[in-house]
Each structure stands twice: as C-alpha cells, then as structure tokens.
Prior knowledge:
The protein has 8 helices and 8 strands, in the order βαβαβαβαβαβαβαβα. 38% of the residues lie in helices and 17% in strands. It has helices spanning 30-39, 52-64, 85-98, 119-136, 148-156, 172-180, 198-205, 241-259; strands at residues 14-19, 42-48, 70-74, 104-111, 140-145, 163-166, 183-187, 211-213.
Amino acid sequence: MVLVICAEPEHKTMTDSHVHLQEYIRPEDLPLYMEKLSHLDVTGLLCVSYDIESSKKAVELLNAYTGSGLQIAVGLHPQYISSDPKEQLAELQAILNKNKSVSAIGEIGLDYRKGMPDRELQKDFFRKQLEMSLEYGLPVSIHSVSACEDTLTILKDHPGVKGIMHGYAYSAEAAKEFVKLGFKLGVGTTLLNPSAKKLPEVVRSIPQDYLVTETDFPFSYKKGSPTFSDETALECEYFTPETIKETAKLHAKMLRNLLNHL
C-alpha cells in the first residue's frame, strides 16, 4: 500500500500525518471517532508507533475499523531500543509479515539527546529498519533530533527510501537535502510558536508539495503551545476530533501566511 499524505491550505479537508491514536482510543470506540472526524473535514490519520506494543495496538485499531481514512505505521523509535534489539527487530518483521495492510514503518530514526541509547546502536537499528522499508516497499516516518548529519548520511546510503521527516526542526539548507532524497517535512505546532526561528524559513523555502501537516497528538499538547488547555492536557478528554480540526485550521492558516511571505 502506498502512503498518501497531503495538507493543502486551499483545501477544506486535512490529513494528519502523525498521531498516536492507539494509546488513547479503544478499538471499539474507533468507528464513532472516525465518523466524527469525517464530519469535521479531517479525512485521514496516520497512526504512528514507537515500540512493539504500540505497533500491535495500532494493528488492533486498524483491524477494528472497516472504513477509510485510517493508516498505520509500525516501528521502533530510537528511545525504545531494548537490551535485546535483535528480538525487537524479529518481532517487528513478524508484524509486517502478518499484516499486509500496514502503510508505513515508523517512527524510526536517531535521537542524540542526553540519556538516549548508544549512538552506534541507534544507527544500526535505523539502518535495519530502512532495509525493511525497502524490503516491504513501505515509506517511513523519521524521528531525528540533534542528528541531522548522520540522518542524511544514512538515508543517502539507502536510495529509494521515501517518507516523512516527522517534526522537522533542522535548517532550510538541510531541508533541501531531505527533499532531494524524496522526503516530505512534517510541520507541527512548533510553527505556531512566535519564538520559532528555523521552521518559518523552512516553510518559505520548500515547495508546498513537500510540506505535510501533523499534530503528534497527544504529545503536542504541552504548556505554552497555542492549543494548550491545562496541566492535564495529555489526558484522553483533550484528544478529540474537535481539537484536531482546530489545530489543522491553525496549521493551514500559518502555512498560507508564510508561503505568501506575510
């Protein structure tokens, strides 16, 4: 299956390219949830995973839903590499073998912040999941923090891999390199922060076809963000179709303004 993600400000409909729905919606509640979304012109979601358990939960959601609009990604985030990574990779491959309706692999990548797993181990894990992407013909959702150069280097070693750079936060120059490799850039609530410096420049300099909207629900709901409600913002009650739509409107407005150099 080919992953199709688009976020065009001129259109009334919107696809959110990065949510973690499996942690907050029960499979039996999903049909009603997706119906509400459709009435709000949110026509699609990519539900992204980060470890084996969340990948399995994403599959459960997909299996519980017979309609359109929901796609899932299964994968292993660098933060959650276990003491037995070979077993994790084997489990991920088993999930891919058993579930042909998976749309992408993710979120995968590199995270060089303090306290994260060994960098060489991260890079090995990243490469192996990119190889799975090529093997299964699936795009990827990439998490990359403080690791721009290594991320680009590894992607260049895996020509043919396509996907989304989730929560893009690097320079406009680097953005052009990712676009050359066939990647789209995930634009989230950071764009709405008045203190954001790099991302507005990126949005101005990159063709609109390579920009996709994402909310990273519910993890984008943090104190200080334009959509923040209160200290309990990570609770399920804030993870609603209405809040997704409101965030989508803000994204679309800001994208339009920046693209017009306003």
